Amino acid sequence: MSGNHHDEGHTVAGWTGCAVAVVGTSVAGVGMCLGSAAGIWLGLGVVGLSVLVTWGLHLAGWGKPPGIRPVAERGMRVRDRGARAGHPACVGCRLAGRGRSVSASTSTGTGVAVSAQGMQGAQGVLWPGAASGAGPSGSASSESVV
Predict the structure, then answer these.
(1) Which residues are paired to 117 by β-bridges?
(2) pLDDT tens for the chain, residues 1 to 146
(3) Global confidence as pTM
(4) Residues 99 and 92 sit within 8 Å (Cβ to Cβ)
(5) HSE-CB for 142 with a 13 A CA cutoff
(6) CA angle 121, 119, 99 (to 5 degrees)
(7) Could you give the residue ranges of the DSSP H alpha helices within the chain?
(8) By CB neighbour count within 10 A (0-12 exposed, 13-18 middle, 19+ buried), where does 132 fall?
(9) In contact, 98 and 86? CB cutoff 8 Å
(10) Calpha distance 36→13 (Å, rounded)
(11) CA 111 from centroid of its chain's CA atoms
């Protein structure tokens, strides 16, 4: 099995979130068997809490970034030091506001380089006024997307 190159993501965040979700579904199941609406809603609330617990542990570095980790970083007790800055393709990090700032430097066509911070778009960095058709200088331009 040494040629197996997959990373199943066994992390503290994953196992803790799974355990809390199992408790929540168990409480909801018992509530359903007893006919207790309060028990069902309590169990569903605990399942919702499991999402927040997993997310919080991921942001604290006890999760894993998207994709395959190096073999040396696959242990349960290995903390992800890059979590504080945010992972580039991670939805949880983006929801927390990490890893969003994108700096771009481009030429306006007049030989003057412009540096600005914009939002990441599907095609690249969008200038702040790109929705209105304004380019880096604020005037209407077809160079909104870099």
Answers:
(1) 103
(2) 555 666 777 889 999 999 999 999 999 999 999 999 999 999 999 999 999 999 999 888 888 887 788 787 888 878 887 788 888 888 888 888 887 655 444 444 544 444 444 444 444 444 444 444 444 444 444 444 44
(3) 0.61
(4) no
(5) 0
(6) 100
(7) 12-34, 37-57, 91-95
(8) exposed
(9) yes
(10) 31
(11) 38
Nearest to 14 by CA among 56, 69, 42, 73: 56
- Length of the chain measured in residues: 146
Q: Which amino acid is at 16?
A: T
Type and span of the H or E element at 53: helix 37-57
Report the 10 Å Cβ neighbour count for 106. Answer: 16
Helices 37-57/12-34 angle, 10° precision? 180
